[in-house]
Amino acid sequence: MDELLRVKANLKRGAEYVGGHLTVRTDGLYFHPHQFNIQIADLFINKAEIREIKKIRTLGLVPNGLQLALLNGGVVTLVVSSRAKLMQTIEDAYQL
């Protein structure tokens, strides 16, 4: 599992946006939260589970969000500052 890109990110978990780091690896996405959050469980999404990625606006206004649609019908929402670079890396690595 090679690391392709690592960025600071916030992962939406219910009402909380959990701060941490998102790593794009050759086998999938790995989110590791900071210890200062209420929810501190890691998250791994296998690349084969990702059906689609799209840009979104957080709070309907700020162009800094990404949304991943998963094959099981789930949705993962991320807030990142380097959205274009992250999206391109994921699309290229996972051929989306």
Give structural notes.
The protein is mainly beta and 96 residues long. It has one domain: PH-domain like, CATH 2.30.29.30. Helices cover 12% and strands 57% of the residues. It has one helix at residues 83-94, and strands at 3-13, 16-25, 28-33, 43-46, 50-58, 62-70, 75-80. A seven-stranded antiparallel sheet has the order 4-3-2-1-7-6-5, covered by helices on one side. A hairpin with a 2-residue loop joins strand 1 and strand 2 (16-25). 15% of the residues are buried. The mean pLDDT is 95.
For this structure, what is the CATH homologous superfamily? Answer: Pleckstrin-homology domain (PH domain)/Phosphotyrosine-binding domain (PTB)
Tell me the span between the first and last alpha carbons. 19 Å
β content, as a range? Answer: over 45%
The assigned CATH architecture is Roll
Helix content range: 10-25%
Radius of gyration based on Cα positions:
12 Å
Question: Helical element count?
Answer: 1
CATH class: Mainly Beta
* Strand numbers in spatial order across the main sheet: 4-3-2-1-7-6-5
Structural class by helix and strand composition:
mainly beta
| Major sheet characteristics | 7 strands, antiparallel
Low-confidence segments, ≥5 residues, pLDDT <50? none
Helix and strand string, N-terminal first?
A: EEEEEEEH
User: Could you say which overall geometry the principal axes of the C-alpha atoms support?
Assistant: globular
CATH topology: PH-domain like
Counted up, domains total 1
Number of E-state strands: 7
Average pLDDT metric: 95
